[in-house]
Amino acid sequence: MLLTGSIDGTAKVWNVETNKQKNTENKNVKVPFTLNEERLVVTFEEKGRNPQVDCAIWSTFGRFVIVSISCKLEGGNSKDVSIIKVWDSYTNTLV
Protein backbone atom coordinates (compact mmCIF):
# COMPACT_ATOMS: atom_id res chain seq x y z
CA MET A 1 0.00 0.00 0.00
CA LEU A 2 1.09 3.56 -0.73
CA LEU A 3 -0.19 6.60 1.16
CA THR A 4 -0.17 10.01 -0.55
CA GLY A 5 -1.15 13.49 0.66
CA SER A 6 -1.75 16.58 -1.43
CA ILE A 7 -2.15 20.33 -1.14
CA ASP A 8 -5.64 19.94 -2.63
CA GLY A 9 -6.85 18.54 0.71
CA THR A 10 -6.95 14.87 -0.25
CA ALA A 11 -5.06 11.88 1.11
CA LYS A 12 -5.28 8.58 -0.75
CA VAL A 13 -4.36 4.98 -0.07
CA TRP A 14 -3.29 3.04 -3.17
CA ASN A 15 -2.77 -0.69 -3.79
CA VAL A 16 0.61 -0.81 -5.54
CA GLU A 17 1.11 -4.55 -5.89
CA THR A 18 3.51 -4.87 -8.83
CA ASN A 19 4.05 -8.60 -9.23
CA LYS A 20 1.98 -8.79 -12.42
CA GLN A 21 3.95 -9.41 -15.59
CA LYS A 22 3.15 -8.95 -19.25
CA ASN A 23 4.18 -11.57 -21.78
CA THR A 24 5.65 -9.76 -24.80
CA GLU A 25 7.10 -11.86 -27.62
CA ASN A 26 7.84 -14.76 -25.27
CA LYS A 27 9.64 -12.47 -22.82
CA ASN A 28 8.27 -11.76 -19.38
CA VAL A 29 8.44 -8.02 -18.87
CA LYS A 30 7.46 -6.35 -15.63
CA VAL A 31 4.91 -3.65 -16.26
CA PRO A 32 5.38 -0.45 -14.24
CA PHE A 33 2.29 0.48 -12.25
CA THR A 34 0.32 3.69 -12.52
CA LEU A 35 -1.83 5.24 -9.84
CA ASN A 36 -5.27 4.92 -11.41
CA GLU A 37 -8.80 4.41 -10.11
CA GLU A 38 -8.39 0.60 -10.16
CA ARG A 39 -5.64 0.89 -7.54
CA LEU A 40 -7.39 3.46 -5.34
CA VAL A 41 -8.45 1.99 -1.98
CA VAL A 42 -9.74 5.04 -0.09
CA THR A 43 -9.75 8.84 -0.36
CA PHE A 44 -9.88 11.29 2.54
CA GLU A 45 -11.15 14.71 1.54
CA GLU A 46 -11.84 17.80 3.57
CA LYS A 47 -14.07 20.67 2.49
CA GLY A 48 -13.07 24.20 3.33
CA ARG A 49 -11.04 27.02 1.91
CA ASN A 50 -7.54 26.08 0.80
CA PRO A 51 -7.38 22.66 2.47
CA GLN A 52 -4.05 20.88 2.46
CA VAL A 53 -2.71 17.65 3.88
CA ASP A 54 0.06 18.49 6.32
CA CYS A 55 0.93 14.93 7.29
CA ALA A 56 -0.22 11.42 6.35
CA ILE A 57 1.25 8.39 8.13
CA TRP A 58 0.62 4.71 8.83
CA SER A 59 0.44 3.56 12.44
CA THR A 60 3.23 1.32 13.71
CA PHE A 61 1.64 -1.98 12.67
CA GLY A 62 -0.13 -0.67 9.57
CA ARG A 63 -3.68 -0.86 10.79
CA PHE A 64 -4.45 2.85 10.93
CA VAL A 65 -3.83 5.79 8.62
CA ILE A 66 -3.58 9.14 10.40
CA VAL A 67 -4.11 12.28 8.30
CA SER A 68 -3.64 15.87 9.44
CA ILE A 69 -5.43 18.48 7.30
CA SER A 70 -5.38 22.27 7.75
CA CYS A 71 -7.78 24.76 6.16
CA LYS A 72 -9.83 27.86 6.78
CA LEU A 73 -13.44 27.38 7.76
CA GLU A 74 -16.09 28.13 5.17
CA GLY A 75 -18.38 31.10 5.72
CA GLY A 76 -17.61 34.35 7.52
CA ASN A 77 -15.16 32.77 9.98
CA SER A 78 -11.62 32.99 8.65
CA LYS A 79 -9.93 31.03 11.43
CA ASP A 80 -7.38 28.37 10.58
CA VAL A 81 -8.38 24.89 11.72
CA SER A 82 -6.54 21.59 11.88
CA ILE A 83 -8.39 18.33 11.47
CA ILE A 84 -7.13 14.83 12.28
CA LYS A 85 -8.75 11.86 10.52
CA VAL A 86 -8.04 8.24 11.38
CA TRP A 87 -8.92 5.40 8.99
CA ASP A 88 -9.00 1.75 10.10
CA SER A 89 -7.62 -0.37 7.23
CA TYR A 90 -9.03 -3.57 8.78
CA THR A 91 -12.63 -2.36 8.74
CA ASN A 92 -12.31 0.26 5.93
CA THR A 93 -13.98 2.91 8.10
CA LEU A 94 -13.14 6.30 9.58
CA VAL A 95 -12.63 6.09 13.34
Computed CA radius of gyration, to the nearest angstrom: 17 Å
Low-confidence stretches: none
User: How many individual helices?
Assistant: 0
Strand order of the largest sheet: 6-7-8-9
**For the report, how would you describe the main beta sheet?**
4 strands, antiparallel
Pattern of helices and strands: EEEEEEEEE
Instruction: Say how many strands there are.
Output: 9
Broad shape: globular
Distance between the termini: 19 Å
Task: Give the overall average pLDDT.
Answer: 76
Proportion of residues in extended strands: over 45%
Helical amount among residues, as a percent range?
under 10%
Class of secondary structure makeup: mainly beta
Number of separate domains: 1
Write the layout of secondary structure elements.
Blueprint: E1 2-5, E2 10-14, E3 21-24, E4 27-30, E5 40-45, E6 49-58, E7 64-72, E8 80-88, E9 93-94
Antiparallel strand pairs: 1-2, 2-5, 3-4, 6-7, 7-8, 8-9
Describe it.
- This protein has 95 residues and is mainly β.
- It has one domain.
- Helix content is 0%, strand content 56%.
- The chain is built from no helices and 9 strands.
- The chain has strands at residues 2-5, 10-14, 21-24, 27-30, 40-45, 49-58, 64-72, 80-88, 93-94.
- The chain has a 4-stranded antiparallel sheet, with no helix packed on it. A 3-stranded antiparallel sheet has the order 1-2-5, with no helix packed on it. Strands 3-4 form a two-stranded antiparallel ribbon.
- Strand 1 and strand 2 form a beta hairpin.
- The protein is globular, with a radius of gyration of 17 Å.
- The mean pLDDT is 76.
